[in-house]
Write a structure and sequence with these properties.
Elements: E1 3-7, E2 14-20, H1 30-41, H2 49-52, E3 57-61, E4 63-64, E5 67-68, E6 73-78, H3 110-117, H4 123-129, H5 134-149, E7 154-162, E8 165-166, H6 175-183, H7 196-211, E9 218-225, H8 241-250, E10 255-260, E11 278-280, E12 286-288, E13 296-297, E14 300-301, E15 306-312, E16 324-326, E17 331-333, H9 346-369, H10 374-385
Antiparallel strand pairs: 1-2, 2-6, 3-6, 4-5, 7-8, 7-9, 9-15, 10-15, 11-12, 13-14, 16-17
Helix pairs in contact: 1-5, 1-9, 3-4, 5-9, 8-9
Bound molecules: flavin mononucleotide (FMN) and the ligand C=C(O[C@@H]1CC(C(=O)O)=C[C@@H](OP(=O)(O)O)[C@H]1O)C(=O)O.
Ligand EPS binds near residues 10, 53, 132, 340 and 342.
Length: about 375
């Protein structure tokens, strides 16, 4: 069984991940994981913290001479901001008085987390509810990406919209035209949006929000190519691949919506405009004339690219804060607290989305093809495909 756990406070010494279930003998490169970590740190709209951090993993267990051992893999990402927080975040009791955070930010976990865990100091909530944690997921996703590449599967994302700029739900294109239009120049663009003109408008929108002391959300799309037919199942609700992707993508902090394939677009037209016509090619392969299903029918992959669009809300820390409550006094206040913050995290969330999709596909591929060593998984995969 593939599974992973992560630990680490945003301003603690490090983030730690334990990954179990990847087969032995899988070649893994730290540099491939680090590239994803760097991509997550980038994109327009990131704040001061990202100038401090230079995320990179260190393997502590489970990898030897560049290959997995089949034992649990432990990775660590150092928090370079830690020296600035060492006293405030000390595990041992300290003499000095540390100022408590008591004014909660609407939209963050400050209020719900403080009530739930009984914390007087909201800092105790912020530290783990912070999306610093998503760096850990990207590291795990970076391993999964390397596993999936053995089977010719790639996962990529791009930005579809920022606030009210961009995004159409109805594409009305064949899969080939869609793929071509989508991935041209995506790699080169810092926003990872396929359309250069739109990218400029999105950047301008982010800068406008920043000038106004505000934040903005948007939509990213994540796509997996090369996925074989037959991952996931309809036999139980929680085995549907669409459901598993829903949980994985909705677990990204600030994500408030997710659609697969034509998604909400499919609800506005009749069935004859939605369902993807199946064809059988002369070489024996299967293909569809369109991909409104987003690569999943009946909870099972159908061999087309898996396409998910994900809606991200504007992040909660506003430079011009909203009214709120001071939890220490119960007093209604004019302004909640502001601390150093991002303005827009849609491109970064897209990279986290790639990681979550890679994780779900790794889990589903191992469910179907299993194997304690890569050789065994490969053998199962190739005989299964035949
Ligand atoms: C990569 C990333 C970076 C984020 N950075 C910030 C930030 O700087 N300030 C902030 O208030 N929220 C930030 N967020 C969002 C909060 O973590 C998130 O809004 C919070 O967990 C509450 O959202 P929820 O209701 O979806 O859990 C970020 C989210 C992501 C994915
Ligand atoms: C640290 C990261 O994102 C952080 C997520 C975050 C939040 O509230 O979610 C708040 C900010 O942290 P800080 O208060 O230290 O500036 C972001 O920088 C990261 O993405 O690695």
């Amino acid at each position: 069984m593939f599974r992973f756990l992560t630990a680490g406070e945003s301003h603690g010494p490090c983030l730690t991940m334990i990954v179990e279930g990847l087969p032995a003998g899988l070649p893994v490169e730290k540099t491939i994981v680090d590239v994803d970590l760097r991509r997550r740190q980038g994109g327009y709209g990131r704040g001061g913290r990202m100038k401090i951090e230079k995320d990179a993993i260190r393997f502590l267990a489970g990898v030897r001479h560049g290959k997995t051992l089949g034992s649990p893999i432990t990775m660590q990402i150092e928090n370079l901001d830690w020296p600035n927080w060492e006293e405030r975040m000390s595990a041992a009791p300290i003499e000095a008085e540390v100022e408590e955070v008591t004014r909660v930010r609407p939209g963050h976990a400050d209020f719900t987390g403080s009530i739930k865990y009984g914390h007087d100091d909201v800092r105790n909530v912020i530290e783990r509810s912070s999306s610093r944690e998503t760096a850990s997921r990207v590291a795990v996703g970076g391993l999964c990406r390397q596993f999936l590449s053995q089977f010719g599967i790639t996962v990529r994302s791009h930005v579809l919209s920022v606030a009210d700029i961009g995004y159409t739900t109805e594409r009305g294109m064949t899969q080939d035209a869609y793929n071509d239009s989508l991935w041209n120049a995506v790699e080169e663009s810092p926003m990872r949006c396929a359309d250069a003109e739109l990218t400029e408008k999105m950047i301008a929108r982010i800068l406008e929000a920043k000038r106004n002391g505000d934040t903005c959300g948007g939509v990213f799309e994540v796509v997996a190519f090369g996925v074989p037919i037959g991952l996931g199942s309809f036999s139980q609700w929680d085995r549907r691949l669409s459901a598993r992707l829903g949980q994985a993508l909705m677990s990204i902090p600030s994500v408030k919506a997710m659609e697969i394939g034509a998604g909400f677009g499919a609800t506005r037209v009749t069935g004859s405009h939605v369902h993807d016509v199946l064809r059988h090619a002369e070489d024996g392969s299967w293909y569809h004339l369109s991909n409104n299903a987003g690569g999943i029918e009946g909870g099972i992959t159908n061999g087309e690219p898996i396409v998910a669009r994900v809606g991200v809300k504007p992040i909660p820390s506003l430079a011009h804060p909203l009214p709120s409550v001071d939890l220490s006094t119960g007093e209604n206040i004019d302004q909640s607290r502001y601390e150093r913050s991002d303005v827009c995290v849609v491109p970064a969330a897209g990279v986290v989305g790639e990681a979550m999709m890679a994780i779900v596909l790794t889990e589903a591929l191992l469910d179907k093809y299993a194997g304690d060593s890569l050789t065994e998984t490969m053998r199962n995969y190739h005989s299964g495909r035949k």
